[in-house]
Amino acid sequence: MTIDSFDRLEIARNWLPRYTGMNLEQFGNYILLTNFYNYVEQFAEMFGCDIYGIGKPMQAATNDKGLTIINFGIGSANAATIMDLLIAIDSKGVLFLGKCGGLKSSTEIGHFILPIAAIRGEGTSADYFPPEVPALPSFKLHKFVSDKVVERDLDYRTGVVYTTNRRVWEHDTAFRQKLRELTCIGIDMETATIFVVGHYNEIARGALLLVSDVPITPDGVKTEESDMVVTESWSEMHLNIGIEAMTEIGKAGEKIKHFKY
């Protein structure tokens, strides 16, 4: 069969197992997305489940409650790829557990951000919708996540994050000034893409971001050492909040999908 004879859904059904090493029937209805393999390891240890995709572009695991976690890698292009491939399993909800840089003095390392929107500075999302279409999460999904954060007596921030393809920008004075003018609360490389491609594919989606550095301050640029401290201090809590929120959504059986536009 040639590629011309495949439709989009057939391609996704073929490629999702190829990228993750996991068969379609092994995926749960609800998905946690992350950039970090250690999140998948922690998840597998918690539930005693197998990790698939070692040596492949993405790794995945599913627990006995029907919740799947996928490490899709880093960056906007990878985020778009996994959100396209998830049409293969008709996922009911996707939550991105990512890290971001804090851009406000009130946003400190270890804070959580539930973004109300994301600015599409990455370019990838332009292949899906014109620039006038906002990058938005699904409100009901974020409500479940918010409840879980509050239940732990934790504080969180809301606001708009800026998504960029640039990994090294801290030296760029003009870009830093642009971020100030946009009044963004944080900056990352995936959130806007996940929101827009999720909208395109009619997948309910959200993001819980952990502030891992404050790059606008003189000593705030992330290093391997500083990121290790963040991981050791907050990653387990980050993961647990995501697990609890998405598990509760599944139990409640409440529809979280936006109406079609």
Structure description:
The protein has a 5-stranded mixed barrel. The two termini are 35 Å apart. It has 7 helices and 8 strands. The chain has a single domain (3-252), classed as Nucleoside phosphorylase domain (Rossmann fold, 3-Layer(aba) Sandwich), CATH 3.40.50. The longest helix has 29 residues, at 224-252. The protein is an alpha/beta fold and 261 residues long. Helix content is 37%, strand content 21%. β2 and β3 (67-71) form a beta hairpin. It has helices at 8-20, 37-47, 76-85, 139-151, 173-182, 191-200, 224-252; strands at residues 30-34, 59-62, 67-71, 93-102, 112-121, 156-164, 186-188, 205-213.
> Could you say what the CATH topology is called?
Rossmann fold
Q: What CATH first level would be assigned?
A: Alpha Beta
Determine Rg (CA atoms, Å).
18 Å
Low-confidence stretches: none
The fourth-level CATH homologous superfamily is Nucleoside phosphorylase domain
